[in-house]
Specification:
Elements (H helix, E strand, L loop, with lengths): L14 H12 L6 E4 L3 E3 L1 E3 L2 E10 L5 E7 L5 E4 L2 E4 L4 E8 L12 E8 L8 H9 L9 E8 L20 E3 L9 E2 L7 H71 L1
Parallel strand pairs: 2-10
Antiparallel strand pairs: 1-4, 3-4, 4-8, 5-7, 5-9, 6-8, 9-10, 11-12
GO cellular component, one term: endomembrane system
Protein name: MSP domain-containing protein
Organism: Anopheles atroparvus (European mosquito)
């Protein structure tokens, strides 16, 4: 997988990009993709590999193009890393840890899922999609971003995998936390195996707690939104009832006055 970098490029004016911006603005919720899992990719054994999966679904009414980036391009194999999703379509992204990489450093890495609205008749040719994403800045307001952390299962068993993957990593000596940049590891200052496992276990637990917290926060926000909608509907219904009652009272009063005048 090639090294990727964020570039602050100004996208050229073209019908494809203009259509992407228009499609993004038409989506009321401002969200084109539904990501599952929403916050954390959990890796698990699959034969001799460590594999994580991410399912992305286009919840917009127009087609979208997606692209996957990571903080450690040399560490993972991602398939497919780019593509086009028609409305309501889904795709499962497989993230495989490359052999020879350190297992215990997975929790330090992150992934970024980006997407942008495109014309429904856009080509899904990988080369054309690569050219499209070269012209788009990740900081553009038309690009939707979803950030995912990495984690191992809480009770992950490393037995039988030491011959394929490293079981302990060195210290981070340099590098930044930007997608596309790769931290470098020194060979000294390594902690004992037991300490590494305990730290990894703690990081996995924290990652799961953070994931649960984010889900609860999202649920609370949805509940608040529903409460506001319910209140607004109640107010509108009350106004409508009052208006109908006023019209009915006025109509009855007019009929009563007409009846009295007829008697006289």
């Amino acid at each position: 997988m090639a090294r990727v970098h964020f570039a602050n490029l100004s996208p050229p004016e073209s019908p494809m990009i203009e259509s992407a911006v228009n499609n993004f603005s038409e989506h009321i919720d401002g969200e084109m993709l539904r990501i599952k899992p929403q916050f954390t990719i959990t890796f698990a054994k699959s034969g001799s590999d460590l594999v994580g999966t991410v399912e992305i679904t286009n919840v917009d009414s127009k087609a979208v193009s997606y692209k996957i980036k990571t903080t450690a391009p040399e560490k993972f194999r991602v398939r497919p890393s780019t593509g086009v999703l028609p409305p309501s379509a889904s795709v499962t992204i497989n993230v495989v840890l490359q052999q020879g990489q350190q297992i215990n450093t997975i929790n330090r890495e992150k992934f970024l899922v980006m997407c942008i609205g495109v014309a429904n008749d856009i080509s899904s040719n990988p080369q054309e999609l690569a050219e499209l994403w070269k012209t788009i800045s990740a900081k553009s307001g038309s690009v939707e971003q979803h950030r995912l952390k990495c984690a191992l299962p809480v009770n992950f068993d490393e037995s039988g995998m030491d011959s394929v993957f490293g079981s302990s990593g060195g210290n981070i000596t340099s590098g930044t936390d930007h997608y596309g940049s790769v931290p470098s590891y020194g060979g000294g200052g390594m902690t004992p195996m037991g300490g590494d496992k305990q730290m990894a276990h703690l990081q996995q637990t924290i990652a799961h707690l953070n994931d649960t917290t984010h889900r609860l926060e999202a649920q609370v926000k949805r509940n608040h939104k529903l409460q506001w909608i319910t209140c607004i509907l109640f107010v509108l219904l009350s106004v409508a009832i009052v208006y109908i009652l006023k019209v009915e009272i006025k109509s009855n009063a007019s009929q009563y006055c007409s009846t009295i005048e007829g008697h006289h």
